[in-house]
Amino acid sequence: MSWFRRQKAGILTDTRDQIEIPEGQWEKCPDCSEPIHRRELEENLLVCPKCGHHFRMDSLGYFRLLFDDEQFELHDQNLFAVDALQFLDRKPYTDRLGDAQRKTGMNDGARAATGLIGGHGVSIGAMDFSFIGGSMGSVIGEILSRSIKRACEREIPLIIIAQSGGARMMEGALSLMQMAKTSAQLTLLEEKKLPYFVLLTNPTTGGVTASFAMLGDIHIAEPGALIGFAGPRVIKETIGQDLPSGFQRSEFLQEHGFVDTIVDRRELRNSFIHLLELILEKD
Amino acid sequence: MAKNSERPLLEFEKPLFELEQRLDEMRSVNEDTVEVDLSDQIEALEKRVAELRESIYRNLTRWQRVQIARHPLRPYTLDYIDNLCEGFVELHGDRLFMDDPAIVGGFVKFKGSRFGYRDRTVMMLGHQKGRDTTSRKYRRFGMPNPEGYRKAKRLMKLAAKYGKPVVTLLDTPGAYPGLEAEERGQAEAIARNLFEMSRLPVPIIVVVIGEGASGGALGIGVGDVILMMENAWYSVISPESCSSILWRSWDHKEDAARALKLTAPDLSDLGIVDEVIPEPTGGAHHDPEAAFSSVGLAVSSWLKKLEKRKPAKLIQARIEKFDRIGPYEIRNNGQAAEIHPPTEKSAEVNSATD
User: What number is the ipTM of this complex?
Assistant: First the structure.
């Protein structure tokens, strides 16, 4: 596959970007309350071995999980947010950005990568909830837009991994326009008849759901993920009654026709390989 | 226009309102009594009223503009259609589930000849609010369900089929946050519109006439040009909701309005809005006729410019226009940081004359 050539071997990730797990740390499963050793959880792809609850995974985790031999090339790591509105609430936006950068070791809330999945070249844009709730501002819009362009240029499939509370308030209308920017770019991918898969993870809400996350050819959701437009609290206030159990979860979305399939993270790589093989088969 | 005494009152218009009441009284005394002539005093007071209105409206804060955008007498979509067009055929329903009265639309003859253009058929659609308790409820306060967005998409595709330009008028407090809206895919309905509007092969002119609240507004807001009335607001969230999330209280709506930079001049500076449509002093509700003309003129001049473009060029320019929105910084080791895109405002759209 000459259109895909890795420029440098290995994972091009700073060690500071990798989250250190202290020894002897225990997590309690929020679903079944089972205490799980952090290392066991990691080995099980952050899925509760007892009940299957999916803990949140970051973009690098998904890249390692999905790409062949955990090999991939990262892109667009030099993009930083600009405080165009000089936004000030209880603290300046620039402070929030600085805090999030220190806490996560990321520049902003998304990463882009290319690599092989089952031997097929794929462009992935993945969001990170840990960076200001995965909220989409101009940097995330640009990173995802470039992931789409990369898929178009190399004529390879695109996967976007959605994980976001919605648009980033601190960038006002600029963040809103990222919905239009990414959706518009996807029309070019459509024109080239290239596959576009969306992986919906917990949570995918607001402007992210109302743009690229609902425009996939195939929508794959992780089990139990919150997926919706309006937040459950707002809806509850609007209708003045409690929401039915399971409302806005992956299973609910599938039942109502907005998710194609729900896949356990431990089967995710195989599912993508299988889909790619079915779709990319040459006559 | 409603009589002063019947007019809903904005807090900052109070001094103006009091002065206008005195003017009304003076006029009725002058009419009823033959022996006194108050013409001079009336004239002086009229002048003071005009001056006060001018000074209030010259120094509006962002929050005051939000209030004007929500004024209950502000012209709504159907008012613009009635006044700028003839022979409106309203088309109902999404052909999937039902009709949504929070979005209205249909083919209509736009009277462009009044504005140095020509009369022509366009597809006009927009959010619709109600004027009284019953109609407000019927229109769901201008908050669409998924059916509204799907109807809009159907109508825009019809316009494309017949080669007619699309004009959308934005005026919504947001997409309806209801249980059924979620069940029927509010997010998917909006997303699909962003996608289809990006590649619609006819000109799309977007006008923000009142409230442009978030995805609910953007759901019919992708176009070749985005025009915005002087006292409209457009942002990712309402000042109230922003206050409740970031300040954890409803009391900071004015701070939130300031922080969000949500006015037409702000959005013009940010490179989102292509043209700010001037409103009469006192706002669109004070002189609706002037507001209709202002919008008619702006829409005419853009229709004239855009109708010459070939569909492929139109679509390409539209996609590029949105791709340029949103600044970011590129930091490479050992090099000075660069801001992208450069700060020039959508110059290409404005100068394109092909």
Answer: 0.93
